[in-house]
Amino acid sequence: MNKNILSMLFVLLCMGMPYTNSKADNPICQGYYTPDPAPMIYNDTLFVYSGNDEGGSFFTMNNWHLMSTTDMVNWTDRGIIFGHGDINNAKPAGDWASQCIYRDGKFYYYVTIESSLGGRAVVVGVGDKPDGPFKDVLGKALAGPNWDYIDPTVFIDDDDQAYLYWGNPKLYYAKLNKDMISFDGPIQVTDMSRGFAPNGESSKYTEGPWIHKRGKKYYMIYASHGIPESISYSWSDSPTGPWEWKGVIMGQSSGFAFTNHSGIVDYMGRSFFFYHTAKLPGGGGYTRSTQIEEFTYGADGSIPSIAPTDLGVKNPIHYLDPYVRQESETMAFSNGIRAFRGNGRGVYVGWCHNNDYIKVRSVDFGDTGCETFTLAAEALNGGGSVEIHVDKKDGAVIGKVDIANTNGWKEITVDVDRVTDVHDIFFVVKGGSGELFNLDYWFFETSGVRVPQGAYNETPAEIPGVVEAENYDVGGSGVAYYDEERANQGEVYREDGVDVVEIKDGGYAIGYTSTGEWVEYTIDVKKTTQYDITGRFSAGLDGGGVQLYLDGKELTATIEALNTGDWDTYQTVDVASIDLEEGSHVLRMMLTGPYVNIDWLKFTDPEGTNVTEVKAREISDGNFIIVDITGRYYGEISLTSGLKSEAIKKVKDIVSQSGIYFLKSFDDTITININ
Question: Going by fewer Cβ within 10 Å, which terminus of the chain is more open, N or C?
């Protein structure tokens, strides 16, 4: 099937869907049914691939669908991306569960089809982008046809070996070659398929496998216990087993279809569980929708019992920026609205009737606030208007866009009432009967200047050196940092939303932390090499921790901050040894657990010779100037006794806060760590 036919089919499917008046943000897509979610992270975006239930008396699906997010609360509809019409020997209405993975510049999309040769089969599509277009490069099934061969899940291990798993009622697997489209060896059947686990409990494997690795454990998540299905998991020390059953993650409950299908992913230091239900109006066993919940692993790596909620994810990864172009198909919730592909606009929003609406969550208007609003729209029939409401569908109206006689697509700009800080925004459709208009994108504008992200005091932290936690970048909420509260609860040092606290012995730290919060730092790496990282933390309770990212990519695993008994007692811990490339980078520190104060992160070049940290009691005598890692001059001291304690005392008498300071003379450079 060509892309034009796919687009037309997509439109027809959307037109046939019922309206919903739910107030919740789960399921994450309300315009149509999206079973069998499969999350994938690429760069800084999380993608969720799904099926496209059409209802009836069986699992009728003709295409696969894609959504994406960067904040975990607003989702961008990317439309239909692949279908049986693009696949050789694929019958209509048989496009079942799928999963996509990136490797070496290509995206490999493993999908289930019903084969015209009899039975079901796993086929792989290959594309250059997450949303394709995908091509059936083999022109035949990778596995099958065989009626057992459904629900593929794909995984690349740390040693670069890739594996594919699938099956109902047995769990099959095979090694993949580097090309990702052929097997390295025969198809195997796991011990899980024998219906028991090493601990004596029944694994009750049914279908829908999902594999991922965390630490040294391999986790297999799957639908279990027959019909109606629950979600269980087993783990192993090897990607091929033996598998030990660990328990049920999600049992059957109200609103569920009689099947379930799940995926788990860690994104920006937080863990998320995807599954499907029958929660949407018209939902049922053959009309299922993707939902999401955030969770925390147990200290032993176990996955807790997870209950479905109406809200889904409570706290966003970051706030949405209204001052850049936002696609109309990016939304937390919609009523009546549908997403369409085509018309020369890519994906856009249509099927807009009176009182339909779009909800966008956690929009950060900043301190200056908005003044104008621009919407790209195309009037249909007599047209209508869009009212902009704040915080709820019937909340305060800050502006109204009239859409009529546009003669095609047109940008329409209107004045709006000023709004500051973070709010949910509702775009409410008003007009007569019938379909009123299509929407493409929108943005707000302000005469106030939004400060671009940059180094604090315009001085990037130099590496090797120390990154002071309180010296996070400028740029504001959702750009340079994310904090659950708008106010600085410590009320010191800076006046934005990050909670900065005073250290009892001098200096500042970031405190009052919550899981999911983050701060970013512009750093200047002076040399490409491996650096040893240490950090100084305090924690009055268990569970605190951080994780580091560099330029949007994971740099370290979770760094646990040990319980020091209170938040005034700081401890230096070894973090990691990491390779860094010379040049300017953005370092993100993400809170993976609450209740931790962060003083600084120190990057040391183990082979460096230009600066030597004082570890002995005796140091050279002489006159020294005091500078910090930015080169700022603090004063001069004279050392006569040759003792490190004398140097520290004299530096403390001059500097005002803790940190790393350099004592420089004509012949020597000495590093002093003031705690």
Answer: C
- Residues facing 525 on adjacent strands: 463, 583
Lowest mean pLDDT among 138-147, 338-347, 515-524, 540-549: 338-347
Provide the whole-model pTM: 0.76
For domain 326-445, the CATH architecture is Sandwich (2.60)
Q: How far is CA 605 from the centre of its chain?
A: 31
**Structure confidence by residue, pLDDT tens digits, 206-257:** 999 999 999 999 999 999 988 899 999 999 999 999 999 999 999 987 678 9
Peptide bond into 145 cis (omega under 30): yes
Rounded Cα gap, residues 637 and 41, in angstroms = 53
Q: Is the dihedral of CA 177, 181, 187, 192 positive or negative?
A: positive
Integer angstrom CA distances of residue 560 from 245, 342, 556: 28, 49, 11
Which tokens is 632 given?
Answer: 């700022």
Q: What confidence tens digit (pLDDT) does each residue in 636-658 have?
A: 788 776 666 777 777 777 775 66
Lowest mean pLDDT among 214-223, 449-458, 549-558, 565-574: 449-458
Lookup: tokens for 664: 């420089």
Provide the strand spans (E) within 183-229: 188-189, 205-214, 217-224
We find that the CATH architecture of domain 456-604 is: Sandwich (2.60)
Give the chain's radius of gyration (CA, Å).
28
- Report the C-alpha dihedral over residues 101, 105, 111, 116, rounded to 10 degrees: -160
Phi, psi of 352 (to 5 degrees): -95, 115
For residues 645 and 616, give the distance between their C-alpha atoms in angstroms, rounded to a whole number: 10
Structure tokens at 358: 């779009």
Let me know: does 470 contact 497? Beta carbons within 8 Å: no
Residue 423, C-beta contacts closer than 8 angstroms, at least 6 positions apart? 363, 365, 390, 391
d(CA 112, CA 619): 70
User: By the 8 A CB rule, do 127 and 107 touch?
Assistant: yes
Distance CA 607, CA 531 (A): 9
What is 466-500 written as a DSSP string?
EEETT-PPBS-BTTTEE-SSSS-TT--S--SSS-E
Q: Which of 62, 113, 51, 90 is nearest to 259 (CA)?
A: 51
Q: What is the 8-class DSSP label of residue 652?
A: H
Is the fold of 3-12+34-295 the same as that of 326-445? Answer: no
Q: Is the bond into 169 cis (omega within 30 degrees of 0)?
A: yes
How many residues in the chain? 675
Beta bridge partners of residue 349, listed in sequence order: 339, 439
Into which CATH architecture does domain 3-12+34-295 fall? 5 Propeller (2.115)
What are the sequence ranges of the domains in the chain?
Answer: 3-12+34-295, 326-445, 456-604, 612-674
Q: Where are the alpha helices (DSSP H) in 438-596?
A: none
Torsion of CA 243, 248, 252, 253, to 10 degrees: -160
Residue 146 token pair: 């065989």
Helix H or strand E encompassing 4: helix 3-15
> Closest Cα partner for 69 from 338, 294, 309, 232?
294
pLDDT of 320: 95
**Whole-number average pLDDT of the chain:** 88
- Please report, to the nearest 10 degrees, the dihedral formed by the alpha carbons of residues 7, 11, 17, 23 taken in order: 90
